[in-house]
Amino acid sequence: MKQGALQLGVAPPPNRGIAILDFFLRLVAIVGTLASAIAMATTNQTLPFFSQFVRFRAKFNDLPSFTFFVVASAIVCAYLILSLGFSILHIAKAKAVNTRFLLLFLDTAAMGLLMAGSAAATAIVQLAHKGNNKVNWFAICQQYNDFCKRVSGSLIGSYAGVVVLILLILLSGVALSRR
Question: Taking the CB of residue 151, how many other CB atoms lie within 10 A of it?
Answer without folding.
Answer: 25
